[in-house]
Amino acid sequence: MDLEPFRSFVADPAHAAIVMDFDGSLAEIVDHPDDAQPLDGVVGMLHALVARFGRCAIVSGRPLAFLRAALPVDGLGLVGQYGLEHVVGDEIVVDERARPYADAISAVADAAEAELGDVFVERKGSVAVTLHWRTCAELGPTAERWAHEAALTHGLTEYPTKMAVELRPPVTVDKGSAVEQLCGGMNAALFAGDDHGDLSAFAALARLQSAGALRHAVRVGVTSAEAPAELLAAADVVVDGPAGLLELLTGLAHAVSARG
């Protein structure tokens, strides 16, 4: 694995941030979201990164309760629901601006379960609901139309993902805003991701570097059969699936250890 693009991370790990997505980056994409698990070796790799770098964090569309259970790593930063959930102390805190939409989210979830047949309705606490059609692709257009109407009716925002669409409060946060906060005070930062939602994180790194808030920024694209072409085109480094990202980040941790 070529670590040349990460030379500044190895030279000054205390002022480097390692931030990444979960689904499709640390875990393979699966038919049912509840079945997702980090690749073997990911938890150990994260322990190594937390011990060696100034900041290590996951920014995901998953609820924080899921991320905590899947990645039990002390010192690992976690941001869930695309920035709507943060950990403060030991508590999961939901963005106050999302709270007024809890009833709307619940009503949409109830209606989707009643009306969309085999589409899987993923309730993400009081913050969001995601409609998945990976196991019933023929229902995708129907689910997308249904989601659009529901968003208009309830004042929610549509957020398309891989073979799914999420409905959530119209609050202006995304992975990019989360990455900007996490990378504050760092000299170098990387973000690794595999989907459209990760483009905002890539753009955040570019903004920070352009403003002089970061000296070095590396955007890592994680390939799959569904990875959007624009994400891979925007990446500085491309790795082959979650296994490739695991290899890269393990090598990066080893390089810091070898430097002593």
Could you characterize the architecture of this molecule?
The chain is built from nine helices and twelve strands. The chain is α/β, with parallel strands linked by helices. It has an eight-stranded mixed β-sheet with strand order 5-4-3-2-1-10-11-12, with helices on both faces. Strand 11 (216-222), helix 8 and strand 12 (237-239) form a beta-alpha-beta unit.
Short summary of the structure?
This protein is α/β, with parallel strands linked by helices. The chain has 9 helices and 12 strands.
Main beta sheet strand tally, sense and closure:
8 strands, mixed
Oligomer: single chain
Q: How many domains, as an integer?
A: 2
Shape: globular
Name the CATH superfamily assignment of the largest domain: HAD superfamily/HAD-like
For the largest sheet, list the strands in their spatial order: 5-4-3-2-1-10-11-12
How are the SSEs placed, and which strands pair?
Blueprint: H1 7-11, E1 16-20, H2 42-52, E2 55-59, H3 64-70, E3 77-80, E4 85-88, E5 91-94, H4 102-115, E6 120-124, E7 128-132, H5 140-154, E8 157-161, E9 164-168, H6 175-182, E10 188-193, H7 199-210, E11 216-222, H8 229-234, E12 237-239, H9 241-259
Parallel strand pairs: 1-2, 1-10, 2-3, 10-11, 11-12
Antiparallel strand pairs: 3-4, 4-5, 6-7, 7-9, 8-9
